[in-house]
Amino acid sequence: MRSFSSYPLQSCPSFVRRGTLRVLTVTTIRATRFPVERDKLSDRNLALEKRDSPLALETRSLMPARSVQNRRGLSRYLSQSLTSDYHVFEEDEVKQLSTFIKSYLVEVHGYGDASDLPLWKRVFPQLQRTSDPSLLMAMDRANIPYFIDVSDKRFTVVHTIGRTKDTDQTLRLLADGTTQGFDRAWLPSQFLFDSRVGTLRGFKFSHEPVALGVTLTREREQPQSSPVALANEYDSLEMQSPPESVSIVTTGRIPARGQRSSMWVRDSYTALNDYNGIRESKVFANRQALDSIQYRAITDKGRSIDHGLYSNGKIVANGTSIGLHMLAVENLKSSYASIIRWLENDCATGWNGGTLGRSLSGEPLIIRFSADTVIEDLQLFARSIFRASRPFRLFGFPHRVSDRRIDVEAIDLHTGDEFSVEMTRDWMRLYLPKGTCGNVVARLYTNLLHSLDSDTSLTSGSGEVVFASKAAG
Amino acid sequence: MSLEELQFVNAFIGFCIPSGGTWPAPFVEASYEITGLEHEVDTVVDGVACAPVAEMIRSSSKAQHCILLEAKSGSVSDRQARAYKAVTINQLLVAGVAADEIDVSTAFVDTIYVTGQNNSERLSADFGRAGVEFPLLVHGDSSFRLVEGSILQEAMHRTFLDGIVIDEAAWPMNFVRCDRDSSDGELAALCIRKMVNLLLKRGEVDIERLASTAIDLWDRRGQEDRRRLRRRLASLLADAEANEFRGEIVRDRPHQRWRRASNKRLTPQSIDRLSDLAAQFVQRKQEGRPFNPDQPLLIPYGPDE
């Protein structure tokens, strides 16, 4: 007969690294570290529960996904993940039955109503309504359950407790542009940072030099790459840079795609200081676009939630308060939705009929490159952005080409919406016609932050910072 | 409108709409709204009815001011000049091209002529011959400057008298994209983008759908206007089919309908190729040169990883 005891996960970090837990005496693991780390532990989904195991009685019984009929049920179902139930299988192997909660913010466009079942069937073959008309239950091809919150007919949230590797793949299939009608939320760095509702515990910068024809003045000034020294010591800091660049700084023209670099701090109580320190020190300068942040929120009653919030609209949660998670998701959704709708309603340009005349409303949007960005080859730069492949997924052809200016006629390949761009070496001016999906602005801008320069700014014609001001509200 | 006239109209719109400092916008505060575009205004000159067509009409209830903008790359007829001189606020209100809160008793109207430096003397002479005086804005040396006449709205008068310095590369060109007289070069960009979009969405393009969705305010254009534009757009598509897009699109005769020549699934690479061809086509039309099959692509896309 085996005996059981309990371990706090942070006391056995080697488990985290190993990814598979082979111990004799474990029933419950309280995970309090970064969700992504613990998530790696799970290698089976709920369907793997083996009730005939002699040890099954030691675990909690899990609520079946199909029994969820309303939001209260959804909260109970998702809460299972927060309590970290594990199951012991044969040969002394402990398997995690549930994983962290994943909530994905997904934009539905062009079809009018996200609660239409056929819309989702291309990715979720099994789909059913619950007794709450704004909540759909779906199964992907691997029978992993999802719950789709369609209370907003356009900005939906897909909740799941399936394994991240699988659910990420399903969501990629849904929203990467191959399935018509869906797009991810694209959260630019400042918006991502401002969206946290708790104490910052970690962050990750990432950069993928997709934009071509550009150099940064920093690179010009330092033709010989030299390591950059940090002002402080950051125990928790890790970095990944292209193999050929020993230091953070690369030389010459930003290379073609493929040399992604990133830098992150995890599970740090000094993450905010680290973040500010790195921002001020200019380490990883111009490549400080946030890929994700990690934060912890605690209620006055001591219940807490750890969130990993990603720039692609994914929130991974772990903790003891499902309410805090749902609140954070709702806040994120409404902030993001209000910005996109503001772009569409107030900034998009268009001719209104008026009484007898024609009235023009709206104003262009301005993406301004930082002082460090030097567009050396404007044509190449334009063509590298207006490409059908990821991450931009834009059709566009340049015309009225001169040395200092290019106009681009563009089509968002997600929606088929058309828009126009005027580009110089200092800025891009976007004309979004009325009726165009504003998510294309978020996608273009977020990807510019990650592929060109993280100090690039986006404002309305009136000078309002698009993603910072609304996020605060 | 000629391309130059279209540019002037866009420049003037830009002066009134904020563009984040990329283009001067000194009249944003006055909240001018565009209340008419290529719009007739009925008036009376010496007892005879006439209806000049202003390129653009802007009005501001805040400034109690209406502007009729006449962009010129050629000369001005006596008749037109005198007609503009006769336009009153009341006539603009009747025509529905003045802002709702314009007060007929206090508001005033200006007709402003705008032209390039090389044409300013000719316009000035035309005004003299017609015995009228108008504010004349001249574009030259990277600025817009009032060289003749006065604008009744004092702040605007002073601003133009001092001159508005511009960056030529920042010239806005997307407020008004085309009109019935636009060149093939201007129409080609809109036409080909819409063509590609319809091909991506539907696999085929019919001229009615293309025209009605590519041209601003299609439903407000007259029959003759529409007929002319349809004919020109069809001619552009036929040109594209015969040249840059040969092998990519084919026409379903006898209809004015084109479809993709192949049923192959579109990939990012094939979409990028369409983009290359579109760029080639539009550049050729804007430069007004014949098709050259050996013309290299502007910037051909490399293989996608």
Explain the overall architecture.
Chain A has 473 residues and is of the alpha+beta class. Helix content of chain A is 24%, strand content 27%. Chain A contains 12 helices and 26 strands. Chain A has helices at 13-18, 35-39, 71-82, 117-120, 164-175, 189-194, 217-221, 271-281, 322-347, 378-385, 439-451, 466-472, and strands spanning 5-8, 26-30, 86-88, 94-96, 101-108, 126-129, 135-139, 145-149, 155-160, 182-184, 199-207, 214-216, 237-240, 261-265, 290-298, 304-310, 314-319, 350-352, 359-361, 365-368, 373-375, 394-399, 406-412, 418-423, 427-431, 457-460. In chain A, the strands form 6 sheets. In chain A, strands 5, 6, 7, 8, 9, 10, 11, 13, 14, 15, 16 and 17 form a 12-stranded antiparallel beta sheet that branches. In chain A, strands 22-23-24-25-20-26 form a 6-stranded antiparallel beta sheet, with helices on one face. Chain A has a two-stranded parallel sheet with strand order 1-2. In chain A, a hairpin with a 6-residue loop joins strand 18 (350-352) and strand 19. Chain A is globular. In chain A, 51% of the residues are buried. The model of chain B has no long low-confidence stretch (mean pLDDT 90). Chain B is of the alpha+beta class. In chain B, a hairpin with a 4-residue loop joins strand 4 (53-60) and strand 5 (65-72). In chain B, strands 1-4-5-6-7-8-9 form a 7-stranded mixed beta sheet, sandwiched between helices. A 3-stranded antiparallel beta sheet of chain B has the order 10-12-11. Chain B has a two-stranded antiparallel ribbon with strand order 2-3. Chain B is elongated. The interface between A and B is large, with 53 and 56 residues.
